[in-house]
């Protein structure tokens, strides 16, 4: 038996996230369990609950969405940053050079396969990642802008990693960013 | 035992497609079989092969992509049609008012869950639905334009049907088309 990790261990959280990522890929969202993730991470299931609360929260966290809310809010006030946003978004999914986009595929499998996972991811995006920086002031405009940007990013990743449609599949990140960036810019500028 | 349908029956093809759609939803692409689809359609498996050849061809056909190649080619030469294209694209997935987008969800599950299904769908889109109407003349530009339009359509459907992110989830088709259409227009006009 491994000694098991404790809450104080600074690596425990990261270990659980890695285990969760593998478990969601192997089992799919619906069949993955906190127990199975704990076993893989060699920790007590109680520790997983302690850190993450629920399976859906753990799922969202383990997907590591490559977006910082404040950065997006700031960038939405500038121009010419759609390209940078696209490139950053793609880089995050291509960390593993041997299997670029593999985590994106795992994420869409989970989200398409489970309404609970889809709801968690959507809530996470709208409430935490892309919450309106000035709530009340044109919430509707903000929501529209956010949905436009999100759909362009997801559509691009879908074509590049899942459908592997050319030229998006083989192009460099910079080339994809140059192609998609202007549209993202327009979406970001739509609201002041 | 049901009498079974024969090749001459004008409804046989449609019956097989309906059965395939249900089978792909219930079993997922990888576990669905020609045999299972034939059983559901109450036909001989040989008849399914006769009409569709392979499971992946049947899958693509049963997804009924709502795009006519010549129409898209024509529309790409006009302006102001991105909106119509978006509206037509959405209408196709919302045929069943009780479960709008349910077939889109089934399609993305299959494509995200199987590299074979993804490859079939991608080949179908590039070679049959959106083949270059003037092969050789700027094939690259055509491919770029096609990838941009496809990623915007898929991204929009993903946000509306899978993630259910507002305002794309609750807006009318016309509202979504008005929001997304201009970007599709720009993608369509990028090449002359």
Essential attributes:
homodimer; 192 residues; mainly alpha; 10 helices; globular
Describe the fold and architecture.
Two copies of one chain form a homodimer. By secondary structure, chain A is an all-alpha fold. In chain A, 68% of the residues lie in helices and 0% in strands. Chain A is built from ten helices and no strands. Chain A is globular and about 50 Å long.
> Please, what is the average pLDDT of chain A?
81
Order of helix and strand elements from N to C terminus of chain A: HHHHHHHHHH
Low-pLDDT stretches of chain A are none
Specify the biggest β-sheet of chain A.
none
Task: Determine the oligomeric state from the structure.
Answer: homodimer
**Helical segment count of chain A:** 10
Fraction of helical residues of chain A: 55-70%
Instruction: Label the overall shape of chain A.
Output: globular
Protein chains sharing the most extensive interface: A-B, 39 and 39 residues
Distance between the termini of chain A: 58 Å
Supply Rg of chain A: 18 Å
Helix- and strand-based class of chain A?
A: mainly alpha
Strand content of chain A: under 5%
Count of individual beta strands of chain A: 0
């Amino acid at each position: 038996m491994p000694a098991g990790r404790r809450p104080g261990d600074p690596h425990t959280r990261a270990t659980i996230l890695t285990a969760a990522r593998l478990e969601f890929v192997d089992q799919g969202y619906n069949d993955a369990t906190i127990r199975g993730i704990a076993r893989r991470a060699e920790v007590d299931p109680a520790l997983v609950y302690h850190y993450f609360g629920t399976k859906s929260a753990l799922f969202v966290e383990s997907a590591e969405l490559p977006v910082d809310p404040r950065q997006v809010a700031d960038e939405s006030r500038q121009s010419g940053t759609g390209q940078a946003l696209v490139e950053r978004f793609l880089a995050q999914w291509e960390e593993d050079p041997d299997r670029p986009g593999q985590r994106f595929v795992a994420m869409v499998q989970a989200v398409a396969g489970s309404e609970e996972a889809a709801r968690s991811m959507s809530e996470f995006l709208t409430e935490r990642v892309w919450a309106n920086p000035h709530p009340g002031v044109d919430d509707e405009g903000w929501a529209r802008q956010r949905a436009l940007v999100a759909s362009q990013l997801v559509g691009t990743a879908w074509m590049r990693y899942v459908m592997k449609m050319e030229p998006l599949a083989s192009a460099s990140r910079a080339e994809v960013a140059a192609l998609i960036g202007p549209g993202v810019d327009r979406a970001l500028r739509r609201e002041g």
